[in-house]
Amino acid sequence: MALHLGDYRISLDSRESEANVNFVSHAHSDHTGGVSKSKKLIASDATRDLIEARYGVRAELSSLPDGVKLLNAGHVLGSKQLYADDSAHGYSLLYSGDYQMVESAAAERIELKQADVLILDSTYPYPWLHFGDREETVRAVQRYAAAKMEKGHVIFGAYAVGKSQEIISILNDAGIVPAVDARVAGVNDVYGRHGVHLEYSSIGSPEKEPVLVVESSKLGEFRSAVASRSGKRVFTAVASGWAKMFRFNTDVQFPLSDHADFQQALAYINACDPEVVLTCGGSARLFARNLRTLGYDARPIERLSRFSQSDLLVCSLTNR
Ligand SMILES: [Zn+2]
Question: 189: which residues sit within 8 A by CB, 6+ positions away?
Answer without folding.
Answer: 53
